[in-house]
Amino acid sequence: MTIEIIEDVVRNTVTRITRKDISQFTRTTTFKDLEADSLDIVQILVALEDHFDIEVVDEELESITNMGDFIDYINRKVAEKTARSA
Amino acid sequence: MNLSDKGKIVRISVDAMGGDFAPTEIVKGSVDAAREEGVEILLVGPRDIVESELRKYDTDGLSIQIVQASEYLVEGEHPAMAIRQKRDASIVVATKLVRDSKADAVVGAGPTGGVVASALTILGCVASLSRPVVGGVFIGLNKKMVAMDLGGNVDCQPYQLLDFAIVGIIYAEKYLNIENPRVGLLSIGAEEGKGNAQNQESYPLFKDSGLNFIGNVEGHDLLSGRADVIICDGFVGNIVVKFTEAMGNATARWLEKNLSGKIADEELRALTMAYIAETNPAGALGGGPLLGVNGVVVVAHGRSKAPEITGAIQQARYAVETGLVENLKVELEKAHQAIENRKEQ
């Protein structure tokens, strides 16, 4: 799976749950910019975990500052899962 | 198997560890419900704890099973994060039983945020709704008024408040038989500019929605009958509910003190109990449904004792049997479509 596909899924999931226009999503956008509260964030994490069959570790999210970091993190988790199942 | 088919026995999963008096009162209320309501009960929690409570009762002939969950939520945790960190928490397991069609409804006595977060992430919202809402008739002194949100969402955006209004209208029409319900936005003054930023941003959205919006209403309108559906965020709603309950209890004590010896004790007791029931129907009914999720979820009061838990289970059964979720889905779709059509005109 390419990072472009992952980015697309993350972008669509985040904007669908926060009800923001997709144009508001860039790599420098933050959850705060999207007015996402804790319930939005939990819904986003659960949706992405289900979609990619990965497990997000909440503590690992602490260093994430924007959507670019978030996409890279999800990409890393998907790559780890792929490597494990190879 | 669809357990909610007509004629089937309704199966309800109960978070045995939720609420201030768990598991003792939750288990007792569930046993009473199984006996009185003829429902099947799945008690969810650490097996040894729940089993030791259940052994106190004669459950012969009753359909009660224990479903193992190794953890449970406690007050003070951040609910949204707690359900991710405690993936085997009793409310999480109980809600998954509904998702997996192993139960028709779930009842949880709190923490409210945990019940809401579990429902939202596990069952999801019905299409076109962003958040579920806790609400319904909340005071017996005004039985034809629906208030939302009563504690499910402490921070709300204007479009979410509009969603709650649509749910409130459907509830008022379908369950209270009110035609074209009047919607009011709870504020600190009737004029358009009154209220906090959230109120001021919400007002024009409501005004242009095509709903029967009568404008801002004030605290006294919760009892005046001016609006059929009153909308506020869960922060305000929860404070209002708890204050109302406390006021009812305090007034009842005041009546007892001041009327003692002036009227018969039995009459006085009946009067104060009736007064408490009129000012605290949420307590008397055991809580309220969480509206807008893909499944029947009843949020029982955190201070629920056995009778309230029985009442909450009764509500869950009623919601299953009346097709509450399906009704909401259909009506929400229609309402949102009408708003969209209006925007396009």
List the helices and strands and how they pair.
The complex is a heterodimer of chains A (86) and B (345).
Chain A: H1 3-18, H2 38-52, H3 67-85
Helix pairs in contact in A: 1-2, 1-3
Chain B: E1 11-15, H1 24-37, E2 40-45, H2 47-54, E3 64-68, H3 79-85, H4 90-99, E4 105-108, H5 112-123, E5 133-137, E6 146-148, H6 158-176, E7 183-186, H7 197-207, E8 213-217, H8 221-224, E9 229-231, H9 234-259, H10 265-279, H11 281-285, E10 287-291, E11 296-300, H12 306-321, H13 324-344
Parallel strand pairs in B: 1-2, 1-4, 2-3, 4-11, 6-9, 7-8, 7-9
Antiparallel strand pairs in B: 5-6, 5-10, 10-11
Helix pairs in contact in B: 1-12, 3-5, 4-5, 6-7, 6-13, 9-10
Order of helices and strands of chain A: HHH
Portion of residues within helices of chain B: 40-55%
Quickly give the CATH architecture of the largest domain in chain B: 3-Layer(aba) Sandwich
Range of helix content of chain A: 55-70%
CATH homologous superfamily placement of the largest domain in chain B: Isopropylmalate Dehydrogenase
Mean pLDDT of chain A: 91
Low-confidence segments of chain B, ≥5 residues, pLDDT <50? none
- Distance between the first and last residues' Cα of chain A: 13 Å
**What would CATH call the class of the largest domain in chain B?**
Alpha Beta
What features would you describe in this structure?
The complex is a heterodimer of chains A (86) and B (345). With 86 residues, chain A is mainly α. Chain A has helices at 3-18, 38-52, 67-85. In chain A, helix 1 (3-18) runs antiparallel to helix 2. The longest helix of chain A is centred in the last third of the chain and has 19 residues, at 67-85. Chain B is built from 13 helices and eleven strands. Chain B has an eleven-stranded mixed beta sheet, sandwiched between helices. Classes of the chains: A mainly alpha (86), B alpha/beta (345). The A-B interface holds A 19, 35, 37-39, 41-43, 45-46, 58 and B 78, 80-81, 83-85, 116-117, 120-121, 130-131, 153, 155, 157, 159.
